[in-house]
Amino acid sequence: MRPVSLSGDHIQIQAFLDRYDTFLLDCDGVIWSGEELLPGAAEAINSLRKQGKTVIFITNNSTESRASFCRRFEKFGIPVHIDDVFTSAYITASYLSQDQRLAPPRDEVFILGSEGIENELSAADIKHLGGTDPAFQRDITLEDFKDLAATSTLSSSVGAVVVGVDLQLNYLKLCQAVTYIRNGATFLATNTDATFPIFGTVFPAAGSVAAAVSRASDTQPLLMGKPGPHMMDAILTRHEDLDRSPTCVVGDGLDTDIKFGVEQMLGTLLVLTGVSSRQDMECTDPKYAPEAFVEQLADLVL
Amino acid sequence: MRPVSLSGDHIQIQAFLDRYDTFLLDCDGVIWSGEELLPGAAEAINSLRKQGKTVIFITNNSTESRASFCRRFEKFGIPVHIDDVFTSAYITASYLSQDQRLAPPRDEVFILGSEGIENELSAADIKHLGGTDPAFQRDITLEDFKDLAATSTLSSSVGAVVVGVDLQLNYLKLCQAVTYIRNGATFLATNTDATFPIFGTVFPAAGSVAAAVSRASDTQPLLMGKPGPHMMDAILTRHEDLDRSPTCVVGDGLDTDIKFGVEQMLGTLLVLTGVSSRQDMECTDPKYAPEAFVEQLADLVL
Asked: Where are the transmembrane segments (chains A, B) (predicted)?
C-alpha cells in the first residue's frame, strides 16, 4: 500500500494518532538536526503527551550517554525521564551485560567509537579500552604494526569490539579493532546506518566505520541498534506492559526506523527532515514502506 | 583444474618457467613483507633474469611513488628500471591524465590516501589536495560540519576523489571525501584489497578505507589497481610488444593478483607468503584458482 501523506490534513492526522497510544520517536533528523531543535518538534511532543500518548525516545546515535541525551532534551525544553531514552550505546551495554555476558578472562571491550559507548559500558560495569583514550590519538608507526602482529600491545582480556561512529577515527584504532576481531573477539556495531543527518545534509555514521572494519576483518557485525531486534527487547524490559499494535515508530530513516517498525510489527510514520527523502520512499521495497509520512514532526500538532 | 604444487619439484618448476618469457611480480607478500625482504626473493628475481625472462613489478600498494619503490628495490640489491614498476597510484595518475582527463573548472583531485598518490598525481601535473597535508590532520569540529554542509570549505574545482590506504586516516578527511563524492566528484579507488600483508599478518588496506567511503556516499568506486583492467592497459602502453600468452602473474592474493591474471588471460602463480592461504585457495571459485602455487618465491630458484 502506498504511504499516506498526512501533512496539512487534520482529519487524517487525528485518525492516525487515534490508532496509537505509544510513540517511539527517533531523535536525529526528527527532533533535532545537529545542535538545532527542528521547528515545532518540542510542540509536537508536548501535543502528543497532552493527548495522553506515551512518548519513548529511540536513537541509533551512540555518541552520547542517555544522561547526556536527557540534558539535551532539557536544554530544548522537553522534559524526559532517563528510562524513556533508548540509545544504541545503551542497548549495546545491556546486550553485553545480559544477553551475551562477557566472562573472564575475556571480559574487556575494545571501542572504536565515542564517549557515549564508554559511558554506557562503564554504567553497566563493563571494562573497556580504546574509544576517546588520548593514548590512541596518534599516527600508527612501523613499531605498532610489528607489535600488533606479535599481539604484544593487545590486551589479552578483550572479548568484544564495539564499533560506532567515531569522530576521532584513525588508522591505529582501525587496526586495533580489526586485529582483535581477527583474533576472535566478537564484533558488535552500535548501528549500521550509512549516514546521520546534520545541517541539512548527511555525514558518515557508524555503518561507514563498521564497513571498513568488516571489510578488513572479513566479519559481519552483530547489529545492536535499529533495525535489529535488540532495541525492542530493551524497551520491553523497561516497559513490560507495552502492547505492540497501538505503538508507532516515528523516524527519518527507511532502512533503520521504518524497517525496525515493520519487522517489530509496529505502526510506522516517516518524517522528511532527515536521512530519507520522498524519492527514497518511492524507490524503497514496498514491504518496508511506511504507513504514512509527514514533512516534519511539527505537522502532527493540530 | 586443481592448482599444481610446484615447491620442491624441480622438473615441474622448470616446465612451468619454460612456458613463460615475462613475469609480472606483485611486491608486498611476494618480494617483501613490510620492511623485510622475504628470504630468497632477490635470488629468485636474479635467477629469472638469468634465464632471460623479463620481470615487471605490479603492485596495488599506493603508499609510495614509483621512484620510492625503485629506491627500495635498490636497497634490497635488486636493480629495477622505473618503467618496469607499475603501482596503483601510478595507474590512477595515468588514468586521470589520459583516459578520463579532468578538465577545468573541475580539474583538481581530493586524496584520501598516502604520499605515493600525491607524488604520482604531481608527476602527471594533476592538481590535488587532502592526502598528507597537515591542515587535515586534526579532529573534526561542529564548525566543520556546518561549513561542509554549506560547501564553503570545499574546493569548487574538485572533480575526482582518489581513495587508497591512508595511515593518517581520520574522520575529517573521510567526511571531505564523502561530501565531494555526494556532490558529484568521480570516486576512484587505487585498489580494493581488503588487507595488506606485513610481519606475518594482515592490516586494513585501501579496500577497507574505500568501503567506509562507499557506504557513506552510496557510490561504488572505479577500481584502478588489480584485478581491474587498467593495470594491464598501462603495462601495454609501456611494453607495446608484450604478448599475453607467454606472460605469468606471480602474486599472493587470489582476489587481486590471480583474478587479474585470469581475467587478462595470463598465466598465474600463487605464493603463500602473503594474504591468501592454502585453505583460501581450496575455497576459492575454481574459475579464479591459480594454475600453480609455491610456498615462497625462492622456491623458483633451481
From this structure: none
